[in-house]
Amino acid sequence: MNPPAHQPDVSPIASFFLRWGRRIAAGAALLLAALLLLELASAHFLPKRSVRFLREGTFDGQPAWIDNPFFSYRFSTPRAARPSPPIVVPETPAPGTLRICLLGGSATMGFPDPSFGIGRQLEVMLEHRYPGHPVEVVHMTLEGGNSHVLREVARDLKRLRPQAVVVMTGNEEVAGPYGPASSLGRFHHSSRIARLLVLFSRTHLSRLCAAALDRWSPARADLQAWRSQEPITLQGRMSPNDPRLRSAYRSFRQNLDAILRQAAEASPVVVVCTVPVNLRDCAPFSTSFLDDETAAQEVREKLRAAVAAETATNRVEAARLYADVIRRDPTHAEALFRAARLALAENRTAEAAALFSRARDADALRLRADSRINALVRECAADTSSSLLDAEALFAVRSPQGIPGREMFLDHVHFTFEATCLLASSMLDRLEFLRAFDPEPTGDVPGPETIAGELLYDPWGRAAQLEAVIDRQFRPPFRRQLDNGETLARLNEEKRKVDDRVAAISQDNARAIFARRQASRPEDAWLAVQAARHLFEANAPVQAETAARAALDRWPHRFEIRALLSLIRAVQGQKAAEGIAFLRGKDEDAGYYDVSLSIDVGNELLKRKRAAEARPWLEYALRRDAWNSEAAIALAEALHRLESGSAAVGLLQSAIERNPDNPLLWENIASHYCLLGNWELATMCFRKSEEIAPYRYERLLKWAQAMVRLRQYARALNPIKGYLAAMPGDPEGLEILATIQSHLHAQPETPEDTGKKEETSRKFPWE
Q1: Which of 31, 480, 500, 594 is deepest in the core (most CB within 10 A)?
Q2: What is the residue-wise DSSP string for 679-706?
Q3: CA distances from 295 to 291, 302, 325, 570, 585 (A)
């Protein structure tokens, strides 16, 4: 009989770790099983939505790839999410089709919409260059689309089978989704965690978590909606030495490398572009300071002395003091920018170019691609054997004194129409050099004037574009730039000239031009949308509806086209219930688009003094989301115009009970109390709004507007002056001031008016 096998002794420590190791493994297995069950349950209970950028569909009875309106929900709250540009392309390209995929963020897409962006201009150039061949430029772009987002977009390149892929990204790396300055940035300090968060966004479980958070804290999305545009904290600011930037650069490098490799698998030709930005006419958005407060204070004093010397035209002394500031703090963005402008004024061009570049790289709010980003683009192009289009160098060569500025840019990163044309033509040259297309070109490439005419850019599109740019300049962070006043003055002068050109074209001539353009491009849904908007503004709703229907025939899935058509029909007398049903669609998941677009329709009707028609649209939006303060404010205005001032105040009181930390609600209820003559409550509410957001100068504008509506011009004078002191050049504020002054001059101030103004000054020390 064999003796029993010897059992090795196990130490107590080893036994402890073995026992707990088994428990941890069992716990991990249970957790994984629970997550799997939650994922399956989420897929069952949540609306069926694809997480891919493209979804399957049909067009003209043929299988087609269509943009997914809910793709951006993965990276933003539904209320803040913006859809990608419309995409409807056959799954199998027709013979001879020239198909190009364009990947990028808002600069690549075009501002304020893609109607005149790189993709649209490239499309027109290809149609002229290769007549008789179908052209499809697929806009795989998103507002805020950085490399984290575009890496997910690039998964669908193989589905499209394009002849060429063009990639240009880099501006949104820090502030965009999963960037260190974004709302999710605080959760990661490594590229691996950022990537895991992106992968998690593909799951149904991530949607379940977001839905649970919204239900648990419904006011959160409402607060984020206005806080996203206000300088609440300094979270987004970071110095050039911030370790979070290193994580952002690593993520960008890895993501761009993956994007280019996915593009190479889908297409034989891949072009990647460096990212040009406005250097000369875009001051830094914010400056980071030295950690040593004593040294930082010395730098501030030196900078004040330098600015004073420059103001006194003592350029030599100013240059010396700026140099001293930069020596003490080499990453002081404001000093670098001021020194660059001074060097440029003295024709020290090379020095100015270097200083402008350093100012951009030192900007504490990193909304522009910096030198490191473009260096990584060049590295990725070399590593993946992609063709590099150095747009940064191209813009420098084509700019006055070699420094890109207002000739190329509308603001900090978005291109002018002429610069977009330059970039699109350069892309076309590169694609032809790389033999991306089988057919030989037989036509000429059109210039900017021809393209502007075909796309209805000049002058109507230009006017709309300038209006959007000017509106942004009054909002943070633009209004805090040191050159904001200069920029606004220049843009307002351009807008005045363009508006004069628009006014010089009679409505009959405008309608004829729109009709000719549409007839020349009958399949162009982009052009149909532009024509519909311009015709609607020109008080031609019947023709506008025809144009909007043409766009809807091409893009039947787009909610914003349905909203435009509903707005046009509302002006013609269609009932709101019919318009809302049309907007939502039959048995269709509308997400949050029906809410946001209903508010847009309601606000547009209010602008046209159609409060009765606006009311049901806004009531619907508020029923769908009782926590939406924007809807409550707009509906209160509609109720007041319908002579229901008490109902308007009651509505805002209910909204404040839900969202007591939203200053916009307090500002508006203060205005309504003014209109009702309840000065005591108006004062209290106004003070509350000031307590929550003291930097929101819009409250002064709203107070002045309320006083003007009551014909209390003496009371309105001080607040509007206070507003314009903080927001100089605001056309709305200047218009109100002119109205006030005209009435005060026409009717000399009485002792009673003086008493009212003095009373107002005691309550509200504006100045």
Answers
A1: 594
A2: HHHHHHHHHHHHHH-TT-THHHHHHHHH
A3: 8, 11, 11, 62, 62
Cis peptide before 112 (omega within 30 of 0): yes
Sheet with 387-389, strands from edge to edge, namely 135-141, 98-104, 164-168, 269-273, 387-389
DSSP class of residue 143 equals: T
* Predicted TM-score (pTM) of this structure: 0.89
450 C-beta neighbours (distance < 10 Å), count: 15
What sign does the dihedral 500-506-510-513 (CA atoms) show?
A: negative
The angle formed by the CA atoms of residues 185, 189 and 195, to the nearest 5 degrees, is 75
Q: How far is CA 22 from the centre of its chain?
A: 50
Residue 606's nearest CA partner among 568, 562, 573, 638 is: 638
Distance CA 505, CA 534 (A): 12
DSSP single-letter state for residue 459: I
Q: Express each pLDDT in 581-604 by its tens digit.
A: 999 998 889 999 999 999 999 999
Apex 346 CA angle, 364 and 341, nearest 5: 15
Answer positive or negative: Cα dihedral of 621, 627, 630, 632: positive
Query: Which pair of structure tokens corresponds to residue 541?
Result: 């709703």
Task: List, for residues 373-430, the tens digit of each pLDDT value.
Answer: 999 999 999 999 999 999 999 999 999 999 999 999 999 999 999 999 999 999 999 9
The residue with greater pLDDT, 36 or 103, is 103
Average pLDDT over residues 289-301: 93
Predicted confidence band at 152 (pLDDT cuts at 50, 70, 90)? Answer: very high
The whole-angstrom separation of Cα 704 and Cα 682 is 13
- Asked if 273 and 387 count as a contact pair (C-beta separation under 8 A), the reply is no
Tell how strand 135-141 and strand 98-104 pair up: parallel
Report whether 154 contacts 120 (CB < 8 A): no
Q: For residue 433, with 0-12 CB atoms within 10 Å meaning exposed, 13-18 middle and 19 or more buried, which class applies?
A: exposed
Residue 586: how many other CB atoms lie within 10 Å = 6
Tell which residue, 623, 583, 575, has the closest CA to residue 600.
Answer: 583
User: Which residue in the block uniquely carries the two structure tokens 């992968």?
Assistant: 199
Q: Residue type for 454, please?
A: E
- Measured CA to CA, the distance from residue 70 to residue 559 in angstroms comes to 12
HEC sequence for 659-679: CCCCHHHHHHHHHHHHHCCCH
Q: How far apart are CA 67 and CA 159, in angstroms?
A: 13
Q: For residues 269 and 283, what is the distance between their CA atoms, to the nearest angstrom?
A: 37
The CA distance from 77 to 74, in Å, is 8
Which candidate, 605, 659, 592, places its Cα nearest to that of 627? Answer: 659
The helix/strand/coil state of 55 is strand
The full 3-state SS of 543-604, as one line of letters, equals HHHHHHHHHHHHCCCCHHHHHHHHHHHHHCCCCHHHHHHHHHCCCCCCCCHHHHHHHHHHHH
Strands 54-59 and 62-67: antiparallel
Position 411, amino acid = D
CB proximity list for 754: less than 8 A, separation 6 or greater: 714
Q: DSSP string covering 302-348, please? A: HHHHHHHHHHTT-HHHHHHHHHHHHHH-TT-HHHHHHHHHHHHHTT-
SS (H, E, C) 603-646: HHHHHCCCHHHHHHHHHHHHHHCCCCHHHHHHHHHHHHHCCCHH
Q: What's 413's DSSP letter?
A: S
- In whole angstroms, give the CA distance from residue 420 to residue 426: 10
Place of tokens 């709302």: 183
Q: CA 307 to CA 324: how far, in whole Å?
A: 13
Pull the structure tokens for residue 442.
């037989």
- What is the number of other CB atoms lying within 10 angstroms of the CB of residue 660? 12
Residue 142: which of 132, 129, 152 has the closest Cα? Answer: 152
**Dihedral angle computed from the Cα positions of residues 648, 650, 656 and 659, in that order, rounded to the nearest 10 degrees:** -80
Nearby residues of 707 by Cβ (< 8 Å), 6 or more positions away? 674, 713, 715, 716, 719
